[in-house]
Fold this sequence. Notes:
The complex is a heterodimer of chains A (292) and B (523).
Chain A: E1 3-5, E2 8-10, H1 16-35, H2 41-68, H3 74-115, E3 136-140, E4 149-152, H4 158-181, H5 185-217, H6 224-256, H7 266-291
Parallel strand pairs in A: 3-4
Antiparallel strand pairs in A: 1-2
Helix pairs in contact in A: 1-2, 3-6, 3-7, 4-5, 4-7, 5-6, 6-7
Chain B: H1 17-22, H2 26-54, H3 65-100, H4 108-116, H5 118-128, H6 152-181, H7 194-225, H8 239-273, H9 280-293, H10 309-337, H11 346-369, H12 371-377, H13 381-411, H14 417-443, H15 458-487
Bound molecules: protoporphyrin IX containing FE and copper (II) ion (CU).
Amino acid sequence: MSAAHGGYYLPDPTKWPIITSMGLFLLALGFTLQIHHLAPGPWLMAAGAIIIVLMLYAWFSQVATESEAGRYDAQVDTSFRMGMGWFIFSEVMFFAAFFGALFYTRVLSVPWLAGEEMLWPGFEAAWPTAGPQGAAYIGPDAHEVAPGQFSSIGAFGVPLLNTILLLASSVTVTIAHWALKKNQRAKLSFWLFVSVVLGFAFLYFQAGEYMEAYNHLGLTLGSGVYGATFFMLTGFHGLHVTIGAITLTVILVRCLRGHFKPDEHFGFEGAAWYWHFVDTVWVGLFIFVYIL
Amino acid sequence: MTSTVADHHHDEVPKGISRWLFTTNHKDIGTLYLWFAFIMFLVGGAMSLIIRTELFQPGLQVVDPHFFNQMTTVHALVMVFGAVMPGFVGFANWMIPMMIGAPDMALPRLNNWSFWLLPPAALLLIISLFVPGGGPAAGWTLYPPLSSQGGMGVDFTIFTVHLLGMSSILGSINIIATILNMRAPGMTLMKMPLFVWTWLITAFLLLAAIPVFAGAVTMLLTDRHFGTAFFDPAGGGDPVLFQHIFWFFGHPEVYILILPAFGIISQVIPTFSRKPLFGYTSMVFASVAIAFLSFIVWAHHMYTVGMPLSGELFFMYATMLIAIPTGVKIFNWLATMWRGSMTFETPMLYAIACVALFTVGGLTGLTMSITPADFQYHDTYYIVAHFHYTIFAGSVLGMLAGVYYWLPKWTGHMYDETLGKWHFWLTVIGFNITFFPQHFLGLAGMPRRIPDYALQFADFNQVSTIGAFIMGFAQLILLVVVVKAIRGGKEASSEVWENPEGLEWTVPSPPPYHTFATPPQVR
Lengths: 292, 523
Ligand code: HEM
Ligand SMILES: [Cu+2]
């Protein structure tokens, strides 16, 4: 398999990356055809997605196996840590683009739009808004929404509940981490399991909220710039929660199989860092998208 | 290219095509990156010759305007994202481990992936040119509302950007982990070669800027197909928002393109001046300062779009500040050459041309940073001249200096000096014939990205087109030089040049497949 070079670890040639890239290519190609309603689109997308999932599975299991076989020394461990840390940083910058769009729109461009008396007479700057030609906003959590109107989701119902769920899951992950460090395996698995459950519960409520928005509140991706920022921010966050929850599940399975040692468990920590990141982004969302 | 050194039993080099597909070796991956970049350089170059052919005479002659717009757009995308950025990553792969005394990059599998994301991305971009509606035609800046229209080609471009972005992010992560974690004992940060420093800073720029670009094109995609209104005023959005997000990425991007070149010529100039680099510490700090400033100047691309006066003033002064660290660097290069016993082999010629001509680009940049003056320059050929003096004369000539400097190390053979000199003079003379007249065209008011022009611009345009063909065909010489050096020629010693600085010159040319099996001790 892989060879240690004078204390350095160097992996052997690998097939996973290039095949994963082909999967991504098919996914992108299929998706483009799909949005233009061309026939092979869904098939290509499905093929691409399956390839990606299989490859990631193969790639990560190889890394997990190598790790359990003790092939990684402290230096490799540090490289992994730096890699994960800076990857999370790049994710933060991705969210920054959408938060930036939200702030710019609310603070600058919507007021400017209202100042254009010639173009859009009668349009007044307010938030939420779907713009001068979009649906009219009628306040949060409205029970009756007529066509041409939309409502929004109040902060202190489900969103508050979800905030509590995610914050709690961050705490339980940390408890699990402490247990791992003290080699209390049962406690580790239990608290990790709780975290996973909390994560999926969050997703369940979030999905319910989306259905409420689409079916009863008239709030959709197409509800002007409010709908756009609302769904893109919470949607990308939800996607990250999904990835994080799946990762935690994988880590849970590995824990149950006896992986990780009290002093050597980067896989666990990487997943936990990611989870805390997802959590922090949610706090930003709760404040800037829901409350303010 | 790389060859085996028999005395080390781990050094068998895998054979056949799978060596290149599955490799985790930094030298192989570096080679792949460099060839990919070179091919893209030729493809992008061919597109630019189509543009110049159309502009040889006023009126519409060769291509139809829509295709012309696709060419200006795709030429820029191919050159920036396909040629210059991957080219420098190729250098990083080859040189950083050797320069810091590491056996390989920190995350070799990820390294393979960052390369193999590029060909699918390039393929998507090429496909876009052949679908109904053609490729993207809104300019490489992809401004809506123009890019909100357009056919499937724009969507392909958006996914191209996503894949390229993934590649850059993974590549940067790897470079950061390598530099921070894999240095040989004794190789402290302030002993690192400047090329390593500039790449470290570039990697941070990439990590902060690329995801923002990914966000911008994602909003574009949802605006186009999923009913969002980020950039549509009817729904409360604003097309100018796209420009802000794009340039928040775009300006750091131009420093991503130039900093590695600064690093390369900071290696080359001391060697051929036979003096240590003047002001090493100030070089490091100047690079950091440039990187920091690059995040607070983006709206100098948007002076004419409408901003509050305070915004115009802030971005004007902030932009002018960049001239200070840039000036520090140019001063240091000149001071390194001052009273050195200089010789003028091809790498040195390229490095000197890079300093001299980049300075022209930096000075035109300074003139455009003045808001009221930029109202005249904006969107004219003056801009085109500026960014070719920075990107071609700065980034590409710097990269070529590096190619000639390290080619003997990579291949084990000296390149053909005579051909190298021909390549240099034809490139540099062709370049100036092409782009110097564009300053005058711009000042006289010729707009960029338009296939036709008023009669009085004809002379300068014809000169420019002639220069472009000289410069374009001269690049084939480079292909010959490289192929010749790979296939044979005078054996290169370990040092190659006279007493060059750096660990890469302590290993044989070509270096063994895994360079530092046991880490060297740096004093
Ligand atoms: C001394 C430093 C520099 C200054 C003060 C400067 C300033 C500017 C300004 C003000 C513009 C906008 C002009 C307009 O559109 O009206 C501009 C455009 C541009 N600059 Fe620079 N620049 C500098 C260095 C660089 C470097 C190092 C690069 C690349 C390696 C670069 C690449 C570009 C490009 C590509 C554009 C045009 C973008 C477009 O509209 O397509 N610049 N520069
Ligand atoms: Cu700029």
